[in-house]
Design goal:
InterPro entries (chains A, B, C, D): Homeodomain-like_sf (IPR009057), HTH-type_TetR-like_transc_reg (IPR050109), HTH_TetR (IPR001647), Tet_transcr_reg_TetR-rel_C_sf (IPR036271), TetR_SbtR-like_C (IPR049445)
Oligomer: homotetramer
Radius of gyration of chain A: 18 Å
Organism (chains A, B, C, D): Humibacter ginsenosidimutans
Pfam families (chains A, B, C, D): TetR_C_43, TetR_N
Helix content of chain A: 55-70%
Keywords (chains A, B, C, D): DNA-binding, Transcription, Transcription regulation
CATH architecture of the largest domain in chain A: Orthogonal Bundle
GO molecular function, one term (chains A, B, C, D): DNA-binding transcription factor activity
DNA sequence: AATGAATGAGTGTTCATTCAT
DNA sequence: TATGAATGAACACTCATTCAT
């Protein structure tokens, strides 16, 4: 495509302002392109969404790798969950789309998880091996849950207390404190 | 309204079959009522949704009270989370609507939490008091999170491992097992 | 509907100018009405088409009755075929739609034939009884064929010779001329 | 054109599967060719259609010649009408296109008749000469009519009775039976 | 000559919402 | 109060056709 970059840029902005269900027409107009052009290159809306977020998604995936190398598993997982939260929180409507059941978004979860799960699974496995992370939890489930919790809570959410994400991780990570009284 | 009951019953069925974003027309037709009638009594869609689920929501809230009376806080919380999951899982699209940002659903979270939070807060407070539940967590946050996790995970979700809801609660509840080796 | 008449009138004109596949928008605009109004009253396009032509269709059907009463079967059939031809020839695209297979028109043939066939069948039966019309031909088949032949032939069609409709009828009617040399 | 054969073959298949209004893209893709290439060689869709069916059309035309040589005119005409019916019935949407009025198909009838009419006219003339076929009927009219009747009738069409095509021919052919009581 | 990316008009269809009766 | 007819904005999606390469 001649204007790949323009389309992705336009879509990114549109997604940011209107959410991932922004009208195609809108995106096309921003990109100075006909709607057909977008449909040709991204037959499914989910194709466009993934393409738009692909770079950042890859970054998030690589982050998992990097953290796994630098930190012990439990710590890596905690840090990475922030990375994921940052990603999800930024994409308006992405989380909803991910879990919506709307046929337009149907391939989304698989693609999303396909990119992230393998890297995260490594961390989980390492943690299970050294006993710092509870075993038996699949990366897919965990990412799924983390992405759900990443969206804003009630308005006064920031107010106080630990984030639910942290609580979830606390339930997953075998803290030394709890086993060594 | 003359036909309050008919409308609520119709809406309940429509929500069950088509999700909470079922066409108003559809609901009105099932109730044998004009759409205008519904709009008069429930100006916002969220008003209707809450009205429809009010009874069950109250039941769920009372369940919290009952469990708090019968069980120690931690146990009560675990049991109640199942109650909530049952509620959320049954209402097609309710969870999505709850967090969607769609202006049509905007008042939904507040009303939803307004009914449930006080009762749950009691459990949390009791647990914090006797040291079995980590303090500093607001009921609103927790309910918010639990309702998000109640929706289906990836397709192979049922497969194995603990549910993310359980993991979250594990992070919240100070299990005797973990402190008494 | 408040504007039934306006819609039917508008549709009739639109059909005349653009054919029975005229854009709904177009029809609505001519009628000074929203598209939704048309969809509400005529969910299927074929419903609108039949409604528009209903009066003339009924007239054509009654014509069959009248002719059957006034003329011997063979003669009545010939005269009625002209009536049908007049009807079909006036409705741009009607004949095509009738046989198109397009799902939008799917119910059309049945409705069309449902109105006309019974009356014509009476003529055929009477003719078969008195030996002036070949038996074994169903009214539905015949109408189907006549409506197909009624559309314009090649441009120079009017030029000369008997119409194909007449030839078809000649094959159907046991003319006295042919048996009495 | 380099790939004339591939295009015609692809178009033929596309026409068979999707009808003569198959998307150009589709045809081009099947042929492994750019759409532009098709447009260059067949500026009008009707050009492509005729080109695709040309060979079979010629066969049908030659069939007329062959039958005229082997059989008496009336018999030849009957046999040929079957040949034509076979051709028309096989080409999805061809009959509709032939009579549709859609500008895209506008030149189609003339080209179609240009190929077939001369041969059929010979049969008609011969029949008129020896008194077995009613005179005054143009081949164009007749072919036009036959091609219209070749499409399926109502669903229960096959059920019973003579085909309308046969009836038409009965009206055209001066059967010995009818003149020799 | 061939390619195929790009264009964008065009259409069916759905529904929230209003308001005359 | 209740009704439900009417409105019309909104959107997805398809393709014929053009034209720069």
């Amino acid at each position: 495509m001649r204007n790949t970059e323009a389309v992705l840029e336009a879509a990114k902005k549109a997604f940011a302002e209107l959410g991932v269900d922004a009208p195609m027409r809108d995106i096309a107009a921003r990109a100075g392109v006909g709607v057909g052009t977008i449909y040709r290159n991204y037959p499914q809306r989910s194709d466009l969404i993934i393409a738009v977020f692909r770079r950042e998604l890859d970054t998030t995936a690589e982050e998992a790798e990097r953290l796994a190398a630098e930190y012990p598993p439990a710590e890596a997982l905690r840090l990475w969950s922030e990375s994921l939260a940052r990603f999800v929180a930024t994409k308006r409507g992405f989380a909803s789309a991910l879990h919506s059941g709307d046929p337009a978004y149907q391939p989304l979860p698989a693609q999303f998880l396909g990119i992230l799960a393998p890297k995260v699974q490594s961390i989980l496995d390492a943690g299970a091996a050294d006993g710092t992370i509870r075993g038996g939890v699949s990366a897919e489930h965990l990412i799924h849950a983390l992405s759900r919790l990443a969206d804003d809570g009630p308005d006064d959410a920031a107010a106080a207390g630990p984030s639910m994400t942290d609580v979830l991780l606390d339930g997953l990570i075998v803290s030394p404190r709890s086993i060594e009284p």
